[in-house]
Amino acid sequence: SKAEMGHTCRGTINLATANITVEDSCNFIISNGGAQTYHLKASSEVERQRWVTALELAKAKAVKMLEESDDSGDESVSQTDKTELQNTLRILSSKVEDLSTCNDLIAKHGTALQRSLSELEALRLPPESTDKIKQVNERATLFRITSNAMINVSPHPEDSTVGRAPTAMLSTVSPQACRDFMLLAQTHGKKWQKSLQQERDQRIRLEETLEQLAKQHNHLERAFRGATVLPASTSGTGGSSKDLCCPAKGDLSDEDDDNNEFFDAPEIFPMPDIMGHKRTGSNISGTSSDISLDEQYKHQVEDTKKEKRTRIPYKPNYSLNLWSIMKNCIGKELSKIPMPVNFNEPLSMLQRLTEDLEYHELLDRAARCESSLEQLCYVAAFTVSSYSTTVFRTSKPFNPLLGETFELDRLEENGYRSLCEQVSHHPPAAAHHADSKNGWTLRQEIKITSKFRGKYLSIMPLGTIHCIFHSSGHHYTWKKVTTTVHNIIVGKLWIDQSGEIEIVNHKTGDKCILKFVPYSYFSRDVARKVTGEVMDPSGKVHFVLLGTWDEKMDCYKVQMGTGENGAEARPRAHESEDSRVLLWKRNPLPKYAENMYYFSELALTLNAPENGTAPTDSRRRPDQRLMENGRWDEANAEKQRLEEKQRLSRKRREAEAARATEDGKAGLSGRDVSPRCPHPGPHPAVPPPPGTPYDPYKPLWFERKKDPVTQELAHVYKGGYWESKEKQDWSLCPDIF
């Protein structure tokens, strides 16, 4: 039907680009070049020919319509604003009126000139003078006619006989010139306006439809939960109404529907009055405290330093429509989308990066392995374990400010300490370095690129992760896989990991290939499945890895057999059960984690205030602290202030760099003269040669070097942080908060 021609649905082939071929007496084929092919069978050869003829005629008509639509120039100019278009047409009209006025003046003065020349011609002058005057008169007439033709105004009735023939000729063949251009611009302007209005109407209809779908989806989910969960809860807990408000594991709160009824999460334990306010009802008091953030920070340190905290203030149920913000950001990079803190979790990207160390004991065990292949199995399990915290974590971490740092000192408890620094803002990049007294070093520089595609959000971490074991000298490298957040528009948000990871031991040549299987509705495989093979430099498989990235990883030793080439490539499950070794299993989430952003035990401790940290540490970030304590309106205002401060600092650096480059004295002062320079440390005393780009920002604790193993440029820890912490000398740290 004609109603289906406006959109592409399953079972549609565009006739304008279709290929119609006859197969035999009753069969014929329609295809669109390979993606879709239909084999059709008629009852007889006559019936087949009728169909083929009708389709060929319809195809010819479709091709003709396509060409006409292309020639009409009725393209949609989605970026052109209606007001701007009208202003342009108004300016064009005024310019044509100006030209018309100029033409009237030219005609007036031209007529006067011709009269004067006619009077001269009437005088008794020598023959040669008369010829000259006639020639000048002719040229004056042609000039006036040309100007008339340009404006498309009828020639003046007082043309002399000399100019009449040219006038007739120019009137016949002259182009419509400026006025014609004006008409053309108006015609196309109306087409553009019409196309633009159609696009706007279509977008509004789409938004309304999506909003209705989202509401229907939420109502269905609530009805489903009411029919299945509520009876079980009431019968099992003595009818406590508060217990009904605590959703099951993995059940995210509905925040899309404005009509949803929200409840407080059950406060089984008393919450600390961290920011000088208490929760009231289902909302959070937004009143400011008389105590400054710094003083409040100091009050918290005394308690949290003694023992690691096991809870944070519950996430308030604020209703906010994600689609209302994301609909204008399709195709953009996530780091460039201005997002309120309502979609954040109270951790920065640096802290999320540090969460990779939650299962650090896997590297401790790997360091004790004598076999490099067994060691590689534990490194692979560690790689998979870093994704276990993401399964329910659909909130976005805070984008770190340039120069922001985060330290995690667990040297006494767990034998390692870690440091992260935001080394670049555009593109956003963070450098991470962790050392363990148990014999390993982990370092990485991760650049996050992301694209919002409407229905889902793709997050692609770029950069190489290095793990070096001190005693054996084994140096492993790998890269992260793509993370995808689904159901941005309708439904519950859920996260999937997909892609391959190749872990290489650069000393021995051993290799492990991990495959993260993307979720498929039609697949019978276990969700979030990960498979892997550990092989030696010759490609012979010694271990097979199997598990899921959110639960556990098992290892199976490949047994020698009588298969092809004397060995079996992959063992069967029942044959290899005896050789199964549990490499890693996810720690259970804390109680009521669903009310605390699904944080793990480690994540709950990361933003706890600590004494002696650098002034650039993420724990001291005020908008993140306000957001953690439920003061979201204040956090949004503080976030805008910090971002504006960062923009001003960047402009000052760029201006200072431009001046230094012009003067050729960028390094003579020994220190950056900008009082707000994020890195006021020593600069080279020798000015850069002419034409050399001057880098206005340098990280404080990391330096960019070429990696000898991967040959990539990466930021590597240069030392000095822990020494500065011991001395409590933070004089080089910038003022970013």
- Averaging pLDDT over every residue, what do you get? 75
Uncertain stretches of 5 or more adjacent residues: 72-79, 153-176, 229-296, 562-571, 668-695
What's the number of helices?
Answer: 15
Number of strands: 23
Instruction: Specify the biggest β-sheet.
Output: 6 strands, antiparallel, barrel
CATH topology of the domain at 327-559 and 577-637: Porin
Strand order of the largest sheet: 11-12-15-16-14-13
Any idea of the CATH class of the domain at 327-559 and 577-637? Mainly Beta
Named CATH architecture of the domain at 327-559 and 577-637: Beta Barrel
Structure class: alpha+beta
- Gyration radius, in Å: 37 Å
- The fraction of residues in strands falls at 15-25%
**What is the helix content?**
25-40%
- The general outline is extended
Q: Terminal Cα separation, in Å?
A: 62 Å
Polypeptide structure, described:
- There is one protein chain.
- The protein has 737 residues and is an alpha+beta fold.
- Among the domains are: 15-67, PH-domain like (Roll), CATH 2.30.29.30; 327-559 and 577-637, Beta Barrel (Porin).
- The protein has 15 helices and 23 strands.
- The protein has helices at residues 45-71, 82-122, 127-151, 161-173, 177-236, 293-306, 322-326, 349-354, 361-368, 372-385, 573-576, 601-606, 622-628, 632-663, 721-727; strands spanning 19-22, 27-31, 37-41, 279-280, 283-284, 344-348, 396-398, 405-410, 416-424, 429-436, 440-452, 456-462, 465-469, 475-478, 482-486, 494-505, 511-516, 529-535, 541-548, 552-557, 581-585, 702-706, 713-717.
- The strands form five sheets. A six-stranded antiparallel β-barrel has the order 11-12-15-16-14-13.
- A hairpin with a 5-residue loop joins strand 8 and strand 9.
- It is extended.
- The model is unreliable at 72-79, 153-176, 229-296, 562-571 and 668-695 (pLDDT under 50).
